[in-house]
């Protein structure tokens, strides 16, 4: 007998269920198990070419879900687990070879075919269905459900436990080899003595049609617009198969001349063409080289000579116009000559805003004073052009900045736009933008990029030392010339030199400091003070050696010191005490500078 609560089989005469523990109603009639009618075998040949069958749900499970709630609760509590484990038993001596009932179908176009796989259950049931039976134990358990499974066959359980699948089912070409494998419900067959034979199999694709092709790029026009490094892609399509929006590109913006880009059609567009047009693109991608974008110049050689000459002419006109207005009739400019250039170009122009390049064309000329008090001097005039652009051979610039820089010669009360010193001119042009730009110089100004600071007195050439001594002597003589008429001085004579070199990097002018010292004997005709030795130190900032050009200095600093003659109101620039001169020039700067003193001045530092 069976428990009416959980369906478990019990010993005859038992009063309580050994499974759920509830009282047994021995008076309740037991539902006899209903035998399952076996399907009649079919005669004749088995058709194996059947359309693909969808994966089936085990009909026993579906049937269990249709039971009344009180029965279903009992099944879920225990019987369903048993039923799932003991569905069927195959009591046959022959073996079912599952591979014999596999059907694989392919369709579509070569390269884009699809495949499906199915099991011909109808043919298998016709041949083996009457030999698949429920086991006695399955009949006993299922019979407790009161005949609700009368319309479910044992073969249905087999169908719900066997599956087959392909390793690839799309994008197929003739000659491809497909592999299929089986998935058998192993848990189910722990309770089944079914004899099944199956192996993994292969299938060679054939019979796919050749699709008509077309060149999708034949009617595609590719162009580029904008400025190099920030250029943009533009495409137009004149064909009837596609639209411009069907094409993809790996890079559409931020383009520079010489870049390569790839335009392509994705797989969706290929499949759409096949579906809508019955033909496919013969190629799906093409590489293009970016060209034709306007381009900022990065080297002077990129400027056509004719255009460069026009810039130089424009610069000359600007310089002559300036000097005519600023110098008036007191000073004249002569021998204006092109002396070189300094070009700044931005290192990374992508997504940049500002001056992409800055070209300084530098001219030098001789300025003279009409009253002859101002000695002739050379002035360097840099004229700046920004963002010079080449657009299909047409040159242009954004701004002409005019003469850069401003210099003053206090001794002669003269000032001018530009620079007295070419190294200072180069430094100002080369350091204008900092580390974000690359600096190149040429036509004579490239040597200033290799300027080396003076670090030892022995490095000075004799010619340059004589030139600075002559300049210093002229300054000292002007000071003596301003003395009272009763005060006289002997011809100044050279005494020695100081060289201070900065310990840490500073500005161009602060790199070193050179002082040349002269002395003269000064006296008063009426004896207001005794004949006195006066030391005249003249300082120069920034002494540098320029390859192939020799030495230069950034600026003359001053005639150091101011001293009074004892017991008088007479005074002079310079020092009456050599020890004090040494203290002011050397000792007071030892925290920031290293120093070297020539032999004629060393005694003052002892």
What's this model, at a glance?
With 606 residues, this protein is an alpha+beta fold. The chain is built from ten helices and 36 strands.
Description:
There is one protein chain. This protein is of the alpha+beta class. The protein folds into 4 domains: 59-204, no CATH class; 212-293; 299-450, no CATH class; 451-606, no CATH class. The protein has 10 helices and 36 strands. Strands 28, 29, 30, 31, 32, 33 and 36 form a 7-stranded antiparallel sheet that branches. A hairpin with a 2-residue loop joins strand 22 (389-391) and strand 23. It is elongated, with a radius of gyration of 53 Å.
Strand and helix layout:
Elements: H1 59-65, H2 69-85, E1 89-90, E2 96-97, E3 102-107, E4 114-119, H3 121-128, E5 132-133, H4 136-143, H5 154-159, E6 162-166, E7 177-184, E8 196-197, E9 201-204, E10 212-214, E11 220-225, E12 231-237, E13 248-249, E14 253-255, E15 260-264, H6 267-277, E16 279-281, E17 285-289, E18 295-296, H7 305-326, E19 331-346, E20 357-369, E21 377-386, E22 389-391, E23 394-396, E24 399-403, E25 406-409, E26 414-417, H8 422-430, E27 437-442, E28 452-453, H9 462-481, E29 487-489, E30 493-502, E31 512-524, E32 532-546, E33 550-559, E34 562-564, E35 571-573, H10 578-585, E36 593-597
Parallel strand pairs: 2-8, 10-16
Antiparallel strand pairs: 1-5, 3-4, 6-7, 7-9, 11-12, 12-14, 13-15, 15-17, 18-22, 19-20, 19-27, 20-21, 21-24, 22-23, 25-26, 28-32, 29-31, 30-31, 30-36, 31-32, 32-33, 34-35
Helix pairs in contact: 1-2
